[in-house]
Design goal:
Elements: E1 2-8, H1 10-14, H2 18-27, E2 31-39, H3 42-48, H4 58-65, E3 69-77, H5 80-88, H6 101-105, E4 114-116, H7 120-130
Antiparallel strand pairs: 1-3, 1-4, 2-3
Helix pairs in contact: 3-4
């Protein structure tokens, strides 16, 4: 079993899609090991996305991610990182495969409904950034 980190982003929460996305997570065979609704501060978003600090989209990204509540998730499944990335689809909803979350619920590259860790090291950092060990069952 492997764990990965996921976010239902503010755009999806605002459009009342969190329940539908959570149902799809369940249908895909993931076990939710931790979940929290949280409105990130700008500082928390900047810390989370610090790896992108020098990128031109950093300010826009962190402003968006702190614009409203999001759902933070620790997901578990065999090969969870790869499986979650496939479930989400490509970053650009227009390029995502039919039936993926981003294709079905994303509006644009920036407002693409979900986030997911891209590697084991990233998952470890991201899970630890938002969840203490005792919060995950």
């Amino acid at each position: 079993m492997e764990r990965t980190f996921a976010i239902i982003k503010p755009d999806a929460v605002e459009r009342r899609l969190a329940g539908r996305i959570l149902a799809r997570i369940d249908e895909a065979g993931f076990t939710v090991r931790a979940m929290r609704l949280q409105h990130l501060t700008k500082r928390e978003a900047e810390g989370f996305y610090a790896v992108h600090r020098e990128r031109p989209f950093f300010g826009e990204l962190t402003t968006f991610m702190s614009s409203g509540p999001c759902v933070l998730l620790a997901l578990e499944a065999p090969d969870a990182i790869r499986k979650w990335r496939e479930t989400m689809g490509a970053t650009d909803p227009k390029k995502a495969d039919p039936g993926t979350l981003r294709r079905d619920f994303g509006e644009s590259i920036g407002r693409n409904a979900t986030h997911g860790s891209d590697a084991p090291e990233t998952a470890t950092f991201e899970l630890g950034y938002f969840f203490r060990g005792m919060e995950m069952i």
